[in-house]
Structures are given as structure tokens and as C-alpha cells.
Amino acid sequence: MTLKQINLETSINLKATALQTSAKPTETGSEIQLSGERKELALARLMEVENPAEVDTSLLTSLESLTKFPVKEISRTKYTSHGADVILQRYEIETDSMEVVQQCIRQVQYAMIPMPQEQIIERLAVLAAMLVKPAGESSKDAGIRIKAIAMELKNYPADIVIAAIRDIKNTNKFWPAYSEFHEHIAWRMKRRDKLMECLQKKRVEIAAQMQ
Predict the structure, then answer these.
(1) ∠ CA(4), CA(124), CA(191), 5° rounding?
(2) How many CB atoms are closer than 10 A to CB 32?
(3) pLDDT-wise least confident of 47-56, 79-88, 119-128, 163-172
(4) Where are the domains of the chain?
(5) Which long-range contacts (CB under 8 A, 24 or more apart) does 28-36 make?
(6) Does the predicted model carry a pTM greater than 0.85?
(7) Confidence tier at 157 by pLDDT (50, 70, 90)
(8) Which distant-in-sequence residues (6+ apart) come within 8 Å of 151 by Cβ?
(9) Which of 158, 164, 172, 204 could form a disulfide with 184 if both were Cys (CB 3.0 to 4.6 A apart)?
């Protein structure tokens, strides 16, 4: 499926209950709380798209629409015996508006919404049926293993978890350890983590200027 070129917040039903926000202290400022209805709609969108690259592209487009400036990606090239790797270092986002920064943070948060653990367990159960399970593992053991992995995967965005499960289904013959799931997740998380890091830093800078 293709992702329409618009931010996750405005791509969901605009007739939904208005976004309610509150704040609590964090290491980088305050965490914006999203309303339950908007979170559900954004989650449904992530699960519909199932494509982290498309979500990332849409997210960057939405941030540029909010700030009216291009989002600059700062990276470096690392040369190895296998070729060259482009390593993302940070993003630079231009705005002096606290309101715009808050809106941008919400956009990134919408792209970070995880799948409910129960749904992850269902997807892992289907995956388990397709792969060779560990020798001597009982159905009870398999259930415990699936639940343990699901508890970890619920900390990551829904579309990225779906992509990781799909990658393992297409490349593995044997049931993987959690570390293999994480390998498929970690590199996909970098863009959103770096965007949030940039926006949190920008929010602190603007707050300091307002004092």
C-alpha cells in the first residue's frame, strides 16, 4: 500500500476528538501526551501502510510543511572492506516557534506508536507456524517465548515491528532469538529517534530564549 503525502495527524479523521495534551518532565523537556482516539487512528494508519520507509518519508514531508523549511540530514560516510556505509548523525530543523516544535514532536510521536502486545503475539504465533521451532520445545515453552519477545517488541513503532516480522519470515528457516528481531528494528529506528532528539533539543533552546 502507498502512503499519501501528508502528515500522520492530518491524514487521520479530522472530525475526531481534538488532541488533548499535558506535559510531564523528561530528560529533554516535557513529554506531550496524545489523546487515546488520535493514537488509535495513527496506529491504524501505521499498520495499514506497513512500510517504515514510506512512513519516514511522509513524516519528513509533514515536518517541512509545519516549519516551512527543509529538514537537513547530516550524515557521514564510513568506508569498509565491503564498500561504503552512510551513517546518519543528526537532523537540523529550522524554526523559532515553540508551537511549531510541539506540533512537530506530535508528528514524530504519532510515528512511534507501538502495536498492542496481544496483536504482536498473534503475529508471532503465525510466524512460529512457518518456521522450524527449537528441538524439544513444547507448545507451553513456545507460548512463553512468544510472550517474552512480544513484551520487547511492544516498545517499538507498529510499522517497524511488522516489517521486522516480515523480514524474518522471508529470510529465516529457524525460530530466531530476540536479538535477530532487534537487528531488523534498530536501523529503522534511527531516523525517528534522531528526529525526536533534534526536536527535543530545539524545544529546550527555544524555551531558554524565552526566559
Answers:
(1) 40
(2) 18
(3) 79-88
(4) 8-113+190-210, 117-183
(5) 28/197, 28/200, 28/201, 28/203, 28/204, 29/200, 29/203, 29/204, 29/207, 32/102, 32/105, 32/106, 32/109, 34/106, 34/109, 34/110
(6) no
(7) very high
(8) 117
(9) 164
Does residue 134 sit in helix, strand or coil? coil
Cell readout for 121 is 503475539
- Helices (H), strands (E): how many in the chain? 8, 4
Q: How far apart are alpha carbons 55 and 41 in whole angstroms?
A: 15
Task: Name the nearest CA neighbour of 21 among 7, 3, 39, 45.
Answer: 39
Nearest residue to 58 via CA among 14, 126, 3, 15:
3
Q: Inter-axis angle of helices 52-67 and 178-210, to 10 degrees?
A: 0
* Pairing relationship of beta strands 72-80 and 29-32 according to DSSP bridges: unpaired
Cβ neighbourhood burial of 185 (10 Å; 0-12, 13-18, 19+)? buried
Instruction: Say which residues have a Cβ less than 8 Å from residue 83's Cβ, sequence separation at least 6.
Output: none
Nearest CA among 78, 58, 26 for reference residue 197 = 26
Residue 121 has pLDDT above 50, yes or no: yes
